[in-house]
Write a structure and sequence with these properties.
There is one protein chain. The chain folds into two domains: 141 residues, Pectate Lyase C-like; 117 residues, Tetratricopeptide repeat domain (Serine Threonine Protein Phosphatase 5, Tetratricopeptide repeat, Alpha Horseshoe). The protein has seven helices and no strands. Helix 2 packs antiparallel against helix 3, helix 3 packs antiparallel against helix 4 and helix 6 runs antiparallel to helix 7.
Length: 258
Amino acid sequence: MNSRSRSLSAAALVALCCWAAPARAEKLAHVQQLLSSKSCEGCDLMNAGLVFTDLSGANLKGADLRRANLSQTDLTGADLSGANLAGASLHGANLTGANLTGANLTGADLRQAYLMEAVFTDANLSSAFLEGAIGLTGNIGDADAFYRWALDSARIGNYSEAIENFNQTVRINPNYAKAYLGRGVARYKIGDRDGAMLDTNYAAYLFERNGDAQGYQASKEFIAGIEMIENAPKGGKGKPNFLDFIGSVSGLLLRFLF
């Protein structure tokens, strides 16, 4: 490397350091401002580590919180309207009563977060992780989102949570046939045979009305499987069990649902 190249490289390094240092100082000042006053409207808090912090009632309107770590943070009643929380971790955070109107939560981790009475009007929740979130309501996602979250819960065996999300799906869209079928499966898995039959029969009705032959067939086969289990002789060695039954129809039913 000649002397001119070395001089240019050194100059570039100095320029980078001189640019980066004020930027870091400004971001640190914003973090300190937030922690001391709980008010940092429009602040640059990208990548900030705020785990277990008490930010209840904080003013974070329009703040840049991209990829910030807010896990287990108390954000009760906080104003996060218009904030950019894309990729942020809010795992287990308390967002009870928080205002997230117009917030960008793309890809945010909201697993096990407390969302009771939180406002999500016009918020972007695409690709957000909401498994196990407490207090999910219809203003947080559309019917397809709740259906997807229901299936995610069912996959890991959390059927009670799956049922809650299926409930939200059909509340938003009462004609969501797949949600009734999915809820029927989940209800059977927790021992609610009557509820399972009711949901699956209604799913079959909706599928037939909509001309969905595959959905209708899946529903009827699931009903037949339930009846096979219920009507089998008790105590016999050859009595089918639920795993035998679900295995016989899983190729159609589970592929159809998922």
